[in-house]
Amino acid sequence: MKKLLLISSLCCLSLTVFGQTGILRGTIRDGKTHDAIIGATVQIMGLPTPMGISTDVNGQFELAKVPAGSHTIQISYVSYKTKSVPNVRIESGNATVLETDLSEDNQQLQEVVVKAGRTTNTEIAVVAEIKQIKAMAVGVSAQQIQKAQDRDAAAAIRRVPGVSIVDNRFVLIRGMGARYNSVLVNDLITPSTEVDTRSFSFDLVPSNIIDRMIVYKTGLAELPGDFGGGAIKIYTKRRPEQNFIDVGLTLGYRDNTTGQSVQSHNRGGLNALGLWSADQQLPTSFPTNSGTFNNLSSLQRAAYARLLPNNWGLQQTTVSPDIRFALNTGRRFDIGNVRLSNLTSINYAQTNQFANVDQRLYDNSAVANSTAQQYNDATYSRGTRLGVLHNWSARISPLFNLEWKTLFNQLGNTETIVRQGQNYASNNDVLAYSERFENRSILTSQLAGEHTINELTKVSWIGGFGYTGRWEPDWRRARYLRAIGTTDPFTITTPIDPTPTETGRFYSRLHEYVYSGVANYEHTFGNPTDREPNRIKAGVYYEQKNRDFSARFYGYNSVGENSLNARTQDIGSAFTFDNVNGSNGLTLRDATRDVDSYRGLNSYYSAYVSGDVYLGSRTNLTLGFRGEYNDQSLRSTIVGVDTRLVSNRIFSPLPSLNLTYKLTDRSNIRLAYSSTINRPEFREIAPFEYYDFSLLANVRGNTTLTTATIQNVDAKWEFYPSSGELISVTGFYKHFRNPIESLLLLNPNVLSYTFMNAQSAQNYGVEVEIRKGFTESASAFLKNLTLVGNLSLIRSRVNVGEVVKAPDLGGAIQEYRGLTDAERPLAGQSPYLINAGVYYAAPKSGWQGNILYNVFGQRIFAVGNVDVPTIYEMPRHVVDLNITKNITNRFELRLGIQDILNQPVRLAEDFNRDGVIGKDVTSQIANADQNRRQLRRGSYYTLSAIYTFGRRVIVP
Asked: SUPFAM superfamilies from the xrefs (predicted)?
């Protein structure tokens, strides 16, 4: 009995001791640099059930419920010697702190440097990178893109604080227009993808090739100086972590589009690949000079017209579901001591969009909503994209890495608009057609090298080539009229002097070549094992951009007494060869002007130097200076003479300062100042006039535009509670001199846009970002939950100045006084932006899901004038839902619903000019505001299936 009681007592005592637990927390750092080691494994040895954890972005860890007693702690990380710390005592109810360093394993390190690379595409890695960047920056990882099921860079980047999207493709940072952004792909400046505006179309970059995106909101000497909102760096995937092949197929259904019967036109050829047949091009036999062509007889001009195909007829078609296909491969192999890696991604998409667009023009009398023109546009567009990413990486030695990266996109868009409505000013019913096809080819290719000279010095370089091609072959436009209230047949308009707003055919092509070279140098001073060694960076950047643009427009004229018969026939019959005869029907006239073609040359040179000055263990000051010289010229052949229309040579000194003060190991205060600029694009300075049929608007360049300068001041508090978590508050102020904005010109018939320099502007606001997890929660559900949200509140003010230089309707530069409001918000500036998301991921069950929300505040779409009120783009509340299920280790299904609320895209005129668009836009009271344009895109449903051959990898 005594033995039994003794054994029972010992068992109870052992159970009591085992039930007592404590906490082990600490930080793991590099033994040389004392930098935090992210992802190091900390294990408690000798326990019946193993306990372990990985360090977070700060190198910190915390293990709860560790049994009381003395333990041996083992710490390991790739390329470091495993370390054991014996006799670490854990006391019940108390926390034990372990601070230690790891030493490099030189033998293992050499092998790892040759054959592996650091992870950059996870949320933790991106948060760590942002924390180490001297400037204020935010980012999105491939891992987060995968969770959100974003299809392209445009959808992914709107998760970033202070970022909103226009037209599902253009990025606005801190509410500022797309022209104030600088975009770099793999550290090379990317030219504008648009002809008419300075914008990069983010929808061209499919999400599955993105490694990460970093948005810099303050200047650094190593960043290009041409930005005001932000500099956006898109990094494509570099090398695979393992060999893999995966394929993905996505089917998409859009409300009001898929399954609907619509009118479209055919371009022939390989239209499914974004190409077109040869007969769509203007025959080379056409005279290149409009005067020569127009001096021909009507019969001769009609003979040329009959060389153009009669493909005006529309076909009724049923819209099929959208389809997207992706094939991704990754390979790693060795040739001797060289590790080679290849990533190849092929993406194909065919998408459809139909919308009924309601739009109006007003006579702007003393009564609101006095409609001058009213239309409904049945708009259908079919888009195709073929994209290829092909990257090679070679680890030549531990000190030399070589990469070749190529990204190519082939895009086509077939758009058909059937317009019906009334022009009350001319007392006519209107029936109009637009049959447009746009083709774009965009190529970027670069060769990059990274050299480690020694542990103190690094050198990197990039050589790049870029090409952008854009064609609009045979854009056909026709306008029919008849008197309002009659049943007369519609009659095609054929004015003697054709204009782009009337019946005719438009052709344009653009070729742009970009050559780039970059070299960077980094050197560490003093002892590199210091906690915060002093560093200096320097570099040079060269870019030459050559653009060749040409456009031709031919309008139809009526000839002879019987031309009315041809002009009253339907769109498929009016332009037959019998009707285009030059005697009793139709003929052609060349309305092209000399300035409709131009050649642009831009040479850009820059150099920078920056240095880190560490003022103690907590304070870091980075000082930088960048000098940029830009030579921009534009030429056209005017009356046979090569004429320089624009010559801008500007040197811009751009200082920058970034100060970081570490309040604790988890929180910082940052202060920043930088001087940046904003240059006009070729299209903005070219006097060429482009007619946008869908907006009823002409767009014309302004040869007097000059470079804007911007002074930027920012302050930020940031706190990193734990791995992947973040709380930050940022305040900013910007002062502009000569900001570039769009401007409405006086035109009673259509809207005419141009570009202008205002005198000055101010922009200031605050941004708040929160990323919160619940890893310590007792609830299994909460442990798998992550909350992400950001809010931006912004105010801006523009001082236009007494005089505005802008072209008139004929293209001559005029000095306007009192043309527009003297003070107002900055064009494109939203007063608030909100992004929010709830993410759920349960790895064991294979389920993931999220619900995302986005909204922007009312912003100026086009600056008005004394006759036409300012046009605003109104807020849209956007809610997306995504669900993912891993069926097996190789098979995954994804369901997505985008834009669940399907709120209208709406442009409204500020009739009473109070800067606020009211809810009542239909009443006739004097202070009401006016709807300008409205449409609903439709909610979008997608179902994706992804299959991976071989080992499972994370595939965005």
From this structure: Carboxypeptidase regulatory domain-like, Porins
Q: How would residue 613 be classed by pLDDT, with cut points 50, 70 and 90? A: confident
Give the residue carrying structure tokens 């950047």. Answer: 541
Paired tokens of 617: 């263990």
Contact 196, 120 (CB under 8 A): no
pLDDT digits (tens, 9 = 90+) for 300-350: 999 999 999 998 999 999 999 999 998 988 888 888 888 899 989 898 999
**pLDDT recorded at residue 484:** 95
Check whether residue 22 and residue 138 sit in a common domain: no
Domain boundary among 82, 104, 126: 104
CATH number at residue 28: 2.60.40.1120
SS3 272: helix
Let me know: does 753 contact 820? Beta carbons within 8 Å.
no
Q: Bin 46: left if φ > 0, else alpha if -120 < ψ < 50, else beta.
A: left
CA 635 – CA 727 distance, rounded (Å): 51
Inter-residue contact 676 to 226 (CB < 8 Å): yes
Q: In this structure, are residues 931 and 920 in contact, taking their beta carbons and an 8 Å threshold?
A: no
DSSP state at residue 319: P
Q: Report d(CA 351, CA 887) in Å as an integer.
A: 27
CA atoms within 13 A on the CB side of 124: 18
What share of the chain has pLDDT > 70, as a percent? 88
Nearest to residue 21, comparing CAs of 53, 41, 61, 51?
A: 51
Cβ-count burial 50-60 (b if 16+ within 10 Å, e if not): ebebebbbbbb
- Does one domain contain both 883 and 829? yes
d(CA 195, CA 512): 10
**Domains held by the chain: number:** 3
Q: Which phi and psi (to 5°) does residue 131 adopt?
A: -65, -35
566: Cα separation from own chain's centroid:
47
Q: Are residues 389 and 473 in the same domain?
A: yes
- Note the pLDDT of residue 13: 37
**Distance between CA 684 and CA 706 in Å, rounded?**
10
- Contact at 8 Å (CB) between 293 and 301? yes
- The DSSP-derived string for 687-706 is --EEEETTTTEEEE--TT--
Contact partners, residue 289, CB within 8 Å, separation at least 6: none
pTM of this prediction?
Answer: 0.81
Query: Model confidence over 241-269: pLDDT tens digits?
Result: 678 888 989 999 999 999 999 999 988 77
Distances 551 to 283, 637, 638, 750, 830 between C-alpha atoms, Å: 14, 13, 14, 21, 35
Is 707:677 a contact under the CB 8 Å cutoff?
A: yes
The Cα angle at residue 190 between residues 186 and 193, in degrees rounded to 5: 135
Close Cβ partners of 168 (under 8 Å, ≥ 6 residues apart): 154, 155, 203
- Residues 498 and 610 occupy one common structural domain: yes
> CB burial class (10 A; 0-12, 13-18, 19+) of residue 10?
exposed
Q: What amino acid is encoded at 920 in this protein?
A: D
- Distance, in Å, from the CA atom of 296 to the CA atom of 294, rounded to the nearest integer, reads 5
Residue 951 has pLDDT above 60, yes or no: no
The pLDDT of residue 924 is above 60: no
| 305 vs 886 pLDDT, higher one | 305
What six digits make up the tokens of 201? 């179309």
User: In which band, very low, low, confident or very high, does the pLDDT at 352 lie, cut at 50, 70 and 90?
Assistant: very high
Q: Burial code of 523-554, b = ≥16 C-beta within 10 A, e = fewer?
A: bbeeeeeeebbebebbbebebebebebbbbbb
Q: Which tokens sit at 605? A: 């040179």
Residue 357 lies in a domain: yes
Of 406, 475, 473, nearest in space to 442 by CA: 406
CA distance 25 to 333: 40
Structural domain range at position 139: 114-237
pLDDT at 515: 96
CA atoms 820, 824, 829, 835: torsion sign: negative
Q: Give the CA angle between residues 31, 37, 38 to the nearest 5°.
A: 175
